[in-house]
Structure formats: C-alpha cells, structure tokens
TrEMBL record:
Full protein stretch here: 1 to 365 of 1022
Similarity remark: Belongs to the TRAFAC class myosin-kinesin ATPase superfamily. Kinesin family. KIN-5/BimC subfamily.
Full protein name: Kinesin motor domain-containing protein
Binding site for ATP: 98-105
Organism for this UniProt entry: Amborella trichopoda
Ranges for domain Kinesin motor: 12-356
Entry function: Responsible for microtubule translocation. May be important for the organization of phragmoplast-specific arrays of microtubules. Plays an essential role in stabilizing the mitotic spindle. Required during mitotic cytokinesis.
Transmembrane segments: none
Subcellular location: Cytoplasm, Cytoskeleton, Spindle
Length: 365
C-alpha cells in the first residue's frame, strides 16, 4: 500500500513565496521597494540598480503571496490540502524559511493564538489554523481518534523540550544542557527523542495552552542562556491516530503526522558568523539549513543517498520528508532594498527546491 502511494504521488515539494508589507521603520526611511509580486502569474520580480549595476530577475513559485495577502488566503490556498493529507494518514512537513524579520513566526504562529468562541482571530497563523482544522474535522466525524503533540527547539544541534513540565530555572537549564535529549532510531525509519514530553490532547484549546507554555519557555530560555531565537529552529508536531470501521466491519487505523517548523533565520546560512565566538553556532545552524537543502534536493532528484543523518533537524524529520509525504516550504522576504542581498539568497534557495521538481526527466519517473 505504501509503495503504491509512493509511486502515485512521487516526492511532493511545494514552494511558496510570501512577501511581507513594509515595516514602520522601512516606511519611515522611505526604503525603495525592490520586489514585485504577481500572484496570478506566481512570479516574483526583483529589480534594482546598485552602484550602476542593474539587477533584474524573475522567479516562479508554486504560489506567491504579496504584502496584502491575508493569513486566511495563505492557509486556505496552501495548507488546507496538506492538513487533509495528514488526516488521511500521511506525514507532512511545513517549513518557514527566510531572513530574520521577514515573517516566519508571523506566518507560522501569527498575531494571536487565542481562540474566541471557537473562532480564530484574522491574524492567526498556520499552526492555530491547522490545529482548528484538525479538531473540527475529527469532532465532525464518527471515528475514534487520539492526538499527541510535541514541541521542541533545536539550538546548536541540541534539543530543548518546550513542553517539559518543570519550572524553568537557570540551574535546570544548565542541567539540561549537560544532559541533552537524545535522538534514537525507532527501527521503523524514524527517530525517537528519548525523554521528550509527548502530550495527549483532546481539544484545540488544550493545544493552544501548550503552545503558549512552550513559547513562554522558549522566551525564558533565550533570556537566561543569552540565546537568539533567530538562531534556533522550532518544531511543533501533531500526531493523529484515527480508528475507522469499513462497511465490512474491518478496523482501519490511519496515522498521520504534521510537522510545523519555524527555521533559524536564513542569514545564518550565508554569513560566516565566525566572529565573537559565534563560529560553532553559525556552523551548526548552517549544518541544519544546508543539510535540509541537500535532503530536499536528493529527494526530488531521486538520488540514492539522502543525507538525513547529517543534521539533527533532518534526522528528526526523517519520517516526514520524502516517501509518502508532502513537504511545503514557505519562503518569506521583505520588500525593502535594505534586505536585497538576503532576499536574493532566499529566492535562490527556495527556487532551487522548486526548480528541480520540474525537470522533465524527474517528472517522467
Ligand atoms: P521572523 O520570524 O522571520 O523573524 P516575524 O514573524 O517576527 O519575523 O516578523 C517581523 C515583523 O513583521 C513582526 O512584527 C510581524 O508582525 C510583521 N509581519 C511579518 N509578516 C507580516 C505580514 N505578512 N503582514 C503583516 N505583518 C507582518
């Protein structure tokens, strides 16, 4: 069954581009706009003259969301089908990739995670919307189900459990740093994180409370350990088991997993960071982001060797990248000239993943 799906679906990597509106600071200094989004043509044009050198480039993506796109537009057009796949028993991963300050967290988490009377605020991002879609669907169907979530942070290739119950303190954090959570093969092609808290949840609201707890812990840990969130990846995973009965009375169990990943700022990939003792950090972030790029390339090009093992991030996501899974990369950029260099680097990274998929020899496989 799995093999059949694999053949039918192939490796599915969808790449979206989102350009945020100008920030107040950018507006105040009249930063020229260097990006034009054509949502209809799914194109992003970059045009700028720098020191007499004219840059004119056009990139095409699976979908493009300009500065006026609402959270609901992105969710309905790009994420609803992915969550439906998860509810059908597939593993899917959504990444936010881009320079710090371009809207990764806004896209994934959004303005507010609190739901009012079951309704989400307009600023709610992908995570709360996915949680709501999952529970609305599960509660509306006549099947037994169970939902588990994990929430972790990867910093310097070390994992912090954002749902661990203990009160956070400098001493506890130091202890955790000495005894980092361990990644272990689960014998089924995936990995387990030994010691990671897995919360069983029964409603969307319970998840919203856990998310708040996890985000607060992330902020506290950042302050206590003098970390920068732009240098860490956060991974929120929802695993769903659904027990259904076929008309013949047979029992059918579907198990799907959705990974929602807010990646470290992509500026860490291009800058050496070899200043002020940040060399190791930059190297480790580099490793995860670069390995992720290589893994996606290997998957879409059907290369024999996929280098999952080369970074913790890709080891963690091994059962959700490739094979019967859908992967979506949301690349985020700023419209301002001040970010031009990083914007071009983000567009190139994202476009590489998109472009490879379209090679005819790959499509024919
Ligand atoms: P990142 O996670 O990439 O560092 P943030 O998500 O923190 O960036 O976004 C930086 C700022 O820009 C935040 O104040 C956020 O609210 C705002 N922002 C980002 N994207 C959008 C958007 N599409 N619409 C409105 N505001 C946005």
């Amino acid at each position: 069954m799995a093999g059949r799906h694999e053949k039918e679906k192939g490796v599915n990597v969808q790449v979206l581009l989102r350009c945020r509106p100008f920030s107040d600071d950018e507006l105040r200094c009249n930063a020229p706009q260097v990006i034009t989004c054509n949502e209809w043509q799914r194109e992003v044009a970059v045009s700028q003259n720098i020191a007499g050198k004219q840059i004119d480039r056009i990139f095409t993506f699976d979908k493009v969301f300009g500065p006026s796109a609402h959270q609901s537009d992105l969710y309905e057009q790009a994420v609803v089908p992915i969550v439906n796949e998860v509810l059908e028993g597939f593993n899917c991963t959504i990444f936010a990739y881009g320079q710090t300050g371009t809207g990764k967290t806004y896209t994934m988490e959004g303005d507010s995670k609190k739901s009012k009377n079951g309704e989400l605020p307009p600023g709610a991002g992908v995570i709360p919307r996915a949680v709501k879609q999952i529970f609305d669907t599960l509660e509306g169907q006549n099947a037994e189900y169970s939902v588990k979530v994990t929430f972790l942070e990867l910093y310097n290739e070390e994992i912090t459990d954002l749902l661990a119950p203990e009160e956070i303190s400098k001493a506890a954090l130091d202890e955790k740093q000495k005894k980092p959570l361990l990644l272990m093969e689960d014998g089924k092609g995936g990995v387990l994180v030994r010691g990671l808290e897995e919360e069983i949840v029964t409603s969307a609201n319970e998840i919203f409370t856990l998310l708040e707890r996890g985000s607060a812990k992330r902020r506290t840990a950042e302050t206590l350990l003098n970390k920068q969130s732009s240098r860490s990846h956060s991974l929120f995973s929802i695993t769903i088991h659904i027990k259904e009965s076929t008309p013949e009375g047979e029992e059918l169990i579907k198990c799907g997993k959705l990974n929602l990943v807010d990646l470290a700022g992509s500026e860490n990939i291009s800058r050496s960071g070899a200043r002020e003792g940040r060399a190791r950090e930059a190297g480790e972030i580099n490793k995860s982001l670069l390995t992720l790029g290589r893994v996606i390339t290997a998957l879409v090009e059907h290369l024999g060797h996929v280098p999952y093992r080369d970074s913790k991030l890709t080891r963690l996501l091994r059962d959700s990248l490739g094979g019967r899974t859908k992967t979506c990369i949301i690349a985020t950029v700023s419209p301002s000239v001040h970010c031009l260099e990083e914007t071009l680097s983000t567009l190139d990274y994202a476009h590489r993943a998109k472009n490879i998929k379209n090679r005819p020899e790959v499509n024919q496989k």
